[in-house]
Amino acid sequence: MLHAFGLIVETTITPGWSCAGHLKSMFSPHAIPWHLEMLRIFGKAFKIYTWLGLYVTGPLALHHIVIKDQSIFEETTTFIQGNRLAFGHGLLGALGDTHRKQRKILNPVFSNAQMRNFAPIFYSLSYQKIISTSQFTEGNMRPWISKIALEIIGEADFG
User: Fold this and answer.
1) Are both 86 and 142 inside the same structural domain?
2) Is the pTM of this model over 0.90?
3) Which InterPro entries match (predicted)?
4) Within this chain, do residues 23 and 6 fall inside the same structural domain, yes or no?
5) Which domain, by its residues, includes 30?
6) Are 48 and 55 in contact (CB under 8 A)?
7) What is the Cα–Cα distance from 38 to 45, expressed in whole angstroms?
8) For 70-117, what is each residue's pLDDT tens digit?
9) Which of 35, 55, 114, 158 is the most exposed place for a label (fewest CB within 10 A)?
């Protein structure tokens, strides 16, 4: 029996750091040339050396993975457990029917029409944050990103 992964090209480029495989190259601050070179050599889908194992950029393949056949491409147990630890048993920590029910409840809130209405609020609050910092500096985003997220949710939901 032929396995689907047998049809996918495997990278011949050795990863720079054996423990992380290609992750260091993929997520480096200067990763764009690496991504473009890999796409040029190997095409829209290929195997890589990481815990992920598969690099996909083809729009049709991504549509099947993320939307049409998502039940076939379920997340790994490790991924779900990590999400549950970080976010609880909500949408990001659920699978199957539970996930589907939660999405059905949330879909109207995140419809295209709603997002169109929220966009000016997002831009306004983001712009205010940028203006409030007198200069561009490198720093920890964590303290203010949660505050601005709460502000955006409050403004978008309650006005």
Assistant:
1) no
2) no
3) Cyt_P450_sf
4) yes
5) 1-73
6) yes
7) 10
8) 778 777 788 888 888 988 888 888 888 888 898 898 888 778 888 788
9) 158
CB of 45 within 8 A of CB of 70?
no
Q: Would you mind telling me the total number of residues written for the chain in this entry?
A: 159
As given in the structure block, the two tokens for residue 137 are 């500096």
Give residue-wise pLDDT tens across range 19-75: 667 788 888 888 899 899 989 988 888 888 777 678 889 899 889 888 888 778 777
Are residues 98 and 129 both part of a single domain? no
Same domain, residue pair 140 and 117? yes
pLDDT, tens digit (0-9, with 9 covering 90-100), for 104-143: 988 887 788 887 888 888 888 777 777 776 666 777 777 7
Q: What tokens does 125 get?
A: 């609050």
| Domain termination residue (choose one: 73, 96, 128) | 73
